[in-house]
Amino acid sequence: MPHSNQAEVVIEEPEKEVNLPPSLQLDHDTFLRQLAAFHKERGTTFDPAPRVNNKTIDLQKLYRSVLVDGGYDQVSRTQKAWRKLAHEFHLDSKNGAAYAHQLKTAFYKNLA
Question: What predicted TM-score, i.e. pTM, was given to this entire model?
Answer without folding.
Answer: 0.77
